[in-house]
Amino acid sequence: MEIWINPACSKCRSALSLLDAEGAEYTVRRYLEEVPGEDEIREVLERLGLEPWDITRTQEAVAAELGLKEWERDAGTRDRWIAALAAHPRLIQRPIITADDGTAVVARTEDAVRDALSR
Length: 119
What we know:
Keywords: Oxidoreductase. The chain is α+β, with helices and mostly antiparallel strands. Helix 1 packs across helix 5.
């Protein structure tokens, strides 16, 4: 499995601690440094079963600068949202774990991390 993290994020550090405690094998991706492209974001969204606005951190300063709260949330604006996430990766909710079975989870809680471990 792979986990997308921001090392400054306490939820990310907690998820890593739990993965380590469970002896999980995983790869760390510092997604602010190794930024996912639009196609990769689309793939992760499909694995999550979510839309781009579902994983967008709308409280970030750049979200306000872009006016994200006013953007429509529909099929017609989906690509615009994805482009914003690729251009401004800080907007991506974290951590995200992509499991070996082809699924993914936004791992902000211990239960979510355990769910990823069970896959």
